[in-house]
Write the structure tokens for this entry.
Amino acid sequence: MYRGVRIAAVVPAYKEENHIAQVIETMPDFVDDIVIVDDCSPDDTSGAALRADDGRVTLIRHEVNQGVGGAVLTAHKAAMELGSDINVVMAGDAQMDPEYLPQLLDPVVDGYGFAKANRFFSGESFAGMPGYRIFGNIVLSFMTKLASGYWHIFDPQNGYTAIRTEVLRRLPMNKVAARYSFENDLLIHLNILDVPIVDVPIPAVYGNEVSSIKLRKVIPELLAMLFGGFWRRVWWKYMVWSFSAVALLLIAGIALIVMGPRGWDMGSRRKRRISYRRIGDVGCGALCSGSSDAAGIPPAGHTGKSEQTNDASHEGTYVGNSCNKRGRVRTLGVLALPSLSCRVTSVLLGERREPSPAPSDLAPGEPS
């Protein structure tokens, strides 16, 4: 046990006959269970695991290859049946240094639901790595950040992870991707569940192992999963479980993209041509007084079409007003403001007021 917590190491293995014994022999003593899943290896991976003769080992062999994700999920389920509290993934190729296992476990024991190793925590981490791999890791990390919503993480393909079994019980493990995109899809599912995660700086150990990943097949599959995972996260987290302002903004943004700026016109451009100069000439006092003659509001039955008057001061259009079938005049809200708002509006529009009478014009005894 580690700090009073039962620890299980889950080890996916495929064609690891030459490395699996090293993984078992270097496993720290505080690890209570070692669950190894031989993912239908054509070599003697299972035999090598049994020959290590460690009482903590539980060996499971897949009859059909299910991918690294499928092997990890099988091992997680078996570890939970053994009563583990925290499961840590250790690759069968011995690339994950067990000396750093306490650094990975501490945040999870202290309260995080998930901890992940990050190989690229300093400039020296990229030393000796080809430029195309550096570029690929940066692009893939950004796309995973966008899809998962975890913007503080990096190196998403790193499988050296620790997770609480209580989180695993909430996880729909049958819906998590089983192949190379397992780690990325897992992050998306964890964000939907609001699981707090943390990156832990841990260097990788590279040996003479040979990767069996076929990039031409993996990259399209990974990109498709990230695209679908982004919308799945948005749907469940911001639409179904918590319809928030984010959902409204997203719907409005999608509508603008699909319809375009002309789509919002709806053929009503003519109705929005309001003559603000006409409002200023009329004066707010007349508008608030309710007098249609003073305000220049057309009588009942007016069609709302533009009319020209003989008075130059009344020049303009009545597009802002229209009449309903009962002959009642409908005006814009700005024309029906309360009296206090009209006074403020009159100041803003520069409405002229009659000057106060001169002191000489006042009646005797009338205060000035």
User: Anything to note?
Assistant: The radius of gyration is 36 Å. The beta strands are 7-13, 33-38, 57-61, 86-89, 114-118, 161-164, 197-201, 321-323, 329-331. The longest strand covers residues 7-13.
